[in-house]
Amino acid sequence: IWGDPPDRARALATLRRAVACGVTLIDTADSYGPYVSEDLIRAALYPYDGLVIATKGGHTRHGPNVWRPVGNPDYLRQCVLMSMRRLGVARIDLWQLHRVGPDCPPETQFQAIAEMRQEGLIRHVGLSEVSVEMIERARRFFPVATVQNRYNLVNRLSEDVLDYCVAHDIGFIPWAPLAAGGLAHAHGALTRVAQDLGATTGQV
């Protein structure tokens, strides 16, 4: 997720088509591009009637495959404020900590997020790539609305996190649900199941 899309017009049309098909949650991050995704979402969908715009912060990008988590409270505040500016909103519907940064204690990061929520900059708070133990630590500072972990039919390492979220009424947002396309190709493991159901592998 690096740089501008090769066809900006097509990217904007895809976003609008998704909403026309009934999508109401748009999930992004300031590190996608970086910044490109949020700019595209605003250009295509603002003022977001009937939509929930979710974004993430806490990563820095120094190259196409470089993702460096930073949990410094000042940096997290900058992430929130700049996402608000790019998206054109006075408050972020759902802001997710992209990763718990290794540079300061998790509680320091959670306290900073709690303060921004109390200030009205963030409506709901989510976490990404966290353990059950980390969710419980975060819940001492704010209600955790969502957790976004890698999860699909071939990667179920977050099964315990999913179970915890279900038990505690926390939304679970799987990332890479199609295993980066590995589950959706024509001759993949789901092909026979999809044929029997009269569906596509992506729908299965």
Automatic annotation (TrEMBL):
Keyword Ligase: no
Keyword check for DNA repair: no
Top-level taxon: Bacteria
GO cellular component, one term: cytoplasm
Domain NADP-dependent oxidoreductase, first and last residues per copy: 5-186
UniProt cross-references to Gene3D superfamilies, sorted A to Z: NADP-dependent oxidoreductase domain (3.20.20.100)
Keyword line: Oxidoreductase
Molecular function in Gene Ontology: oxidoreductase activity
Signal peptide: none
PANTHER family cross-referenced by the UniProt entry: AFLATOXIN B1 ALDEHYDE REDUCTASE, ALDO-KETO REDUCTASE YAKC [NADP(+)]
Protein name: Aldo/keto reductase
